[in-house]
Amino acid sequence: xxxxxxxxxxxxxxxxxxxxxILAIWEGVSRGFSIxxxxxxxxxxxxxxxxxxxxxxxxxxxxxxxxxxxxxxFVSIAVAIPIAIGLTRSKTLADCLYPILVVVQSTxxxxxxxxxxxxxxxxxxxxxxxxxxxxxxxxxxxxxxGLMATPPELIELSRSxxxxxxxxxxxxxxxxxxxxxxxxxxxxxxxxxxGAVVAEFVAADxxxxxxxxxxxxxxxxxxxxxxxxxxxxxxxxxxxxxxxxQRVFFPWSLPKDAT
Amino acid sequence: xxxxxxxxxxxxxAIALAAAASSASAQDKVIYQxxxxxxxxxxxxxxxxxxxxxxxxxxDVSITSGRGSTEAITKLGTGSSDIGSAGMEALMxxxxxxxxxxxxxxxxxxxxxxxxxTLKGNGVTEMKDVKGKRIATSPFTASNVFLPxxxxxxxxxxxxxxxxxxxxxxxxxxxxxxxxxxxxxxxTDVSRYTNQAIAAKREIVVMPWSTQGLNLYxxxxxxxxxxxxxxxxxxxxxVAAFKQSMEYVKTNxxxxxxxVTAIVPELTGPDVNGQLKDMLVLxxxxxxxxxxxxxxxxxxxAETWARTAASLKLDPKSLDPEKVVNRSFMPK
Lengths: 259, 332
Hints:
Largest interface: A-B, 28 and 32 residues
Number of domains of chain B: 2
Distance between the termini of chain B: 60 Å
CATH superfamily of chain A: MetI-like
Helix content of chain A: over 70%
CATH architecture of the largest domain in chain B: 3-Layer(aba) Sandwich
Distance between the termini of chain A: 25 Å
Number of strands of chain A: 0
Strand content of chain B: 15-25%
Structural class of chain B: alpha/beta
CATH class of chain A: Mainly Alpha
Number of helices of chain B: 14
Order of helices and strands of chain B: HEHHEHEHEEEHEHEHEEHHHHHH
CATH architecture of chain A: Orthogonal Bundle
CATH superfamily of the largest domain in chain B: Periplasmic binding protein-like II
Shape of chain B: globular
Strand content of chain A: under 5%
Number of helices of chain A: 10
Oligomer: heterodimer
Shape of chain A: flat
Order of helices and strands of chain A: HHHHHHHHHH
Structural class of chain A: mainly alpha
CATH topology of chain A: MetI-like fold
Number of domains of chain A: 1
Largest sheet of chain B: 5 strands, mixed
């Protein structure tokens, strides 16, 4: 039996069976104990929740969330990586910026979100800023750690050969930091979706988070759960896309057992 | 690659927006601020747009949803929106404390929507029976402001009840599952809670606070002072079209439901119908018959401020309630 199933197939089949078993138990409990849908809807009822709005309307909500999550994510990459390089190169800059970064990260974004909305209005800008604030800290920390983790003898060798600082970064430090950067990118992409949803809870007229809040306010729990399912699917897809990018473009940066 | 695609999509979107903007330039743009999420209780603004009252008045109205009266007033005060709906008590408190540049131009609900909801068999048959009971309310509802007053009117204080706060979406399930004896909710939600009670094979009992003598204005049409000052003619036309829509929802409920669902596809006909039916009693009633639809009658206004000041422990002299309203934008 062990020989019949490859380890890779096993890693797919076992979680799938577990997931189906959980759904079956959930369905059985909901029906057996006649739990009302507004308390805990059965999976079959949640499935019907997808029919609450048309497919094109679902796509409008998905696109609204995805747009904010992706823009916030890419803005945070564009800001975080140069900051990380700056922190690595200059001790003074690190002394100046690090405490501020920690303060930003320590501030509960959920609490600040309403203030950001008031300051920046209710269009996409505040939602992108909220997403950016949630995603960029792991990127800065991980990238900095990666850039600092370069073996010192390589740096010394590069300097002894009088290589310019730009080559030290592009050919030594950044390649060494790639595994760190990608682990942060994977964390940040799921945080980006969370950020977009947090922003939609505070102010939005469209988006999956808005749809969940809207459904909850109408006591339509199955629809809210359906929205939650869409969000989970969105996060998983984005996570897999980042992983695929690493697998395709930087296969050498993956752990040996993952290639 | 993704950035390039994204840039293309954003570029295309910007061009489309610019084209839409130029085609609609013949009409005056107005941003309407809701104080909460869309629903049947907000039917007049959807009727105004969908039935063409706004367009006929030369207005191109867009709606933006809100997350409570205070937030709506803030957005109006900062100029993000032009006109919208918000609780009169929240506006009075904001005026007294911060003198926000927002003013009420017409009343929408001339009665407070606040009520106790319970289930038959929970031992609460009249208002004073809430003594000693577990009562759940949502953290940010305006009802919390008036709770101490309504309790005091019945010779009680908050120490006589067991008050807990929970997310608004959890209140109904808490009541139905017996986690609480009573909830504090709004009259605009009677149909929703009734449907939940039916699903739980129970019977809902509603006790509006207005029956206990809580006579006050609640939702009002409020506008940014900047909007009123810079575009008074647009404001006048909007208020007239909005009032026409308030009259329309009473005489044409089925068409009004269709108007809401046409703009908000997440809402179903039965949802909107229930909310609309619940809302109409707060808009069209004995008070509107006596004072006129949308009126801001001085005595009732003063009573609203007196209650608000007492509940928020504000100096009653810190605000002249007449300074909160401007009746000159109402149609003659």
